[in-house]
Amino acid sequence: MLREKPCTHAGAIAVSGDCILAGGCDIDERRRALFSARWKCRAVFADFEEMLEKTSPQILSIATPPATHLELVERALPHGVKVIVCEKPLAADAADAGRIDEIHGSGRVKILTNHQRRYSRDYVRAKERVCSGSFGALLSVSSKLFMGEAGYVTDVLLDDGTHLVDILRYLTGSELGDPVVRLASAAGPFPPGKGRGVTLFVESSAGRVPVLMEIGTGRDYVQFELDLCFASGRIRIGNGLFEEYAGGESPYYERMRSLLKLRTRRPATTGYFSNMLKDAVLCARDPKQEPRSSARDGYLALRFIDAVKTAIGD
Q: Residues 296-309: pLDDT tens digits?
């Protein structure tokens, strides 16, 4: 795998100095065997409750299909787990995500949604630039999310659009307003959200900052990219991308200013999974500590996505 390591929950635990991998659970026997061999973990189980009873974890990672998350969270409650790390999307829809958020809010367990970009050093740096006003006021944000050729655009919206919606909220520090949605396709008529080559344009706002999202299929590449435009600068950030620009005397026009690329580089390692686990550990140790990415963040992302899907009749 080409992704920066660790890039899995078990991998982050394996390199952590704060945690041990106490056990794992999967209903598939082959996957249990692969997990046990890969992570040298003998305590593997087919039954969820049996795993919790025999391992008594303080931190539980749920990396199952979204529709199962609420049930597993509820089943974990009687077993004294302090923190549940739940893969994104937090649930299959905002209704289930809202119930998970209510459980988090009850204080019975802390629930961390794995919006991993909140823990990535490059996005943290961009957030610091926004907050410090290094380039002046943030005036607009545009973004692109393409996940290859096949599939439905609404699936892309749910699976990876969760990351996009959440990181927009994180970077701007604001809730997203009601979406204005338009669907387009070069291939002609199509059912809502279905077919290849469909592009979904979503306009919204984060506070007073206009936000544009372009989400689509039909490309033979993957792209996750945000363009933050400030009064005196610009940041382009995404998968493998971090560029900063500052306004300066233009090399192209007299008595005008242009954006000049700065000599900043994307961090060699972003620590996105390791930093997420560190946050979970802090939450387990300190009753007052709240996750950087909580169940509330997972719920709000899904609430916005559900609003987009409703707008296109999907």
A: 999 999 999 999 99
